[in-house]
Amino acid sequence: MDGFLINGGPRLRGSVRSSGAKNAALPIMAATILCEGETVLHDVPHLADIESMAGLLNRLGVAVTRDADGTMRLRVEDEMNCQAEYDLVRKMRASVCVMGPLLAKRRKALVSMPGGCAIGDRPIDLHLMGMQKLGADVELQAGDVLLRAKRLVGAEMFLGGAFGSTVTGTANVMMAATLSKGRTVIEAAACEPEVTDLADFLNACGARITGAGTPRVVIDGVEGLTGCEHTVIPDRIETGTFMIAAAISNGEVVLENARLEHLLAVVDRLRHVGVNIEKDDGKVVASSSRRLEPITVTTQPFPGFPTDLQAQLMSLLALADGNSIITEKIFPDRFMHVAELSRMGARLHKEGPTVIVEGVKRLIGAPVMASDLRASAALVLAGLIAKGTTRVNRVYHIDRGYEKIEQKLAALGADIQRIRD
Ligand code: UD1
């Protein structure tokens, strides 16, 4: 399995472009199941998860082709298969996003229940509740969920759970409701920019969705959707990761294709730490030139601080001048990176969903193990500044979500190379 060898030290300088957002592209790709005719998507990142979704859609009768520049074309050719099998759902939880489109368009969906994963239990009860509200029969069969309906019927529903709103759950119900009879109202909808991007895509295909990006989304069902041409929004988590890379290396990085309005909480917390984030001539520049201050941060649904940047922020705060407090409110078990960062000399004290980060003067390179996507990014960031060499093993996790991360970091001056096993 591939790994990264990183020699810590260089200050990152230069420009880096964020790719299209994986978490926007995945549900949009799934949504093409609803459409008649061709869809053209621009800025689809080259990532393992995107390939998995393309493979799943292929099995579901969708022809998917792509150009080297990130343009993807999708067209439904056969509507017979309605099943997302366990081997695919297990590999990538976002496979569950085909449930809503299959049910709405083909009247049937057989989707494996996703199991737990490295960041904890990840149930889909809210997705299923939403489908039931729209009139689907839901039956559990040997680890698969079978959903059936004649035509779905619009309904009002509260889609919040114990941990707040659900991003892919909101996407799933929104997609299903586009072809329902009548009006659907989702209360406590996820407000993440990826949900808004999906709504923009669906509206361009002929759907009638208002309120996306707010907790109340209204969908008036239509008879059918066409394909359309759409550009995927930039990946805010990748942009945030590069902001932290600039800060941790005391460098200066110009972030191209960055949308600060998608990163308000991240910019706020990073500025409190002492990172400079400026907009200069339409470009966003992140830089830092001094020891950073400790902060308190809690992950929350958008527009709060994203859980997908919690691990990376921990690497930065590990080097701050004092004690920081990080509380994880979305996935309370998402702390696989704590033990690995500790191997590099970070002083981390975990107490339930909270970690107290006692800032140290330096981290020390070590062999470490990537456990999930964002934890891997945190280890790479730590490696950029650690004394000596860090070897991050099992980087296939990072390949699921960051396009060419080692090439982008190397172009900024990082000493990082991929070791192929
Ligand atoms: C999406 C993102 C992921 C991000 C997460 C939170 C994609 C492909 N993935 O994941 O990168 O970390 O949002 O921002 O977009 N929950 C339930 N019942 C459900 C669904 C969720 O209890 O039916 C809980 C989850 O366990 C979690 C919380 O709700 O505690 C939020 O999860 P959710 O927003 O659904 O995450 P995903 O959509 O899976």
Topology:
Blueprint: E1 3-7, E2 13-17, H1 22-31, E3 35-36, E4 39-42, H2 48-59, E5 62-66, E6 72-76, E7 83-84, H3 86-91, H4 99-106, E8 108-112, H5 125-133, E9 137-141, E10 144-148, E11 156-158, H6 167-178, E12 183-187, H7 193-204, E13 208-210, E14 216-220, E15 225-226, E16 229-231, H8 236-248, E17 252-256, H9 264-273, E18 276-280, E19 283-287, E20 296-298, H10 310-317, E21 323-327, H11 336-343, E22 347-351, E23 354-358, E24 367-369, H12 373-385, E25 389-393, H13 396-399, H14 405-411, E26 415-419
Parallel strand pairs: 2-17, 3-15, 4-16, 7-8, 11-12, 20-21, 24-25
Antiparallel strand pairs: 1-25, 1-26, 4-6, 5-6, 8-10, 9-10, 12-14, 13-14, 17-19, 18-19, 21-23, 22-23
Helix pairs in contact: 1-2, 1-7, 4-6, 5-6, 6-7, 8-10, 8-12, 10-12, 11-12
The protein binds uridine-diphosphate-N-acetylglucosamine.
Uridine-diphosphate-N-acetylglucosamine binds at residues 23, 26, 93-94, 122-127, 161-163, 166-169, 190, 194, 306-308, 330-331.
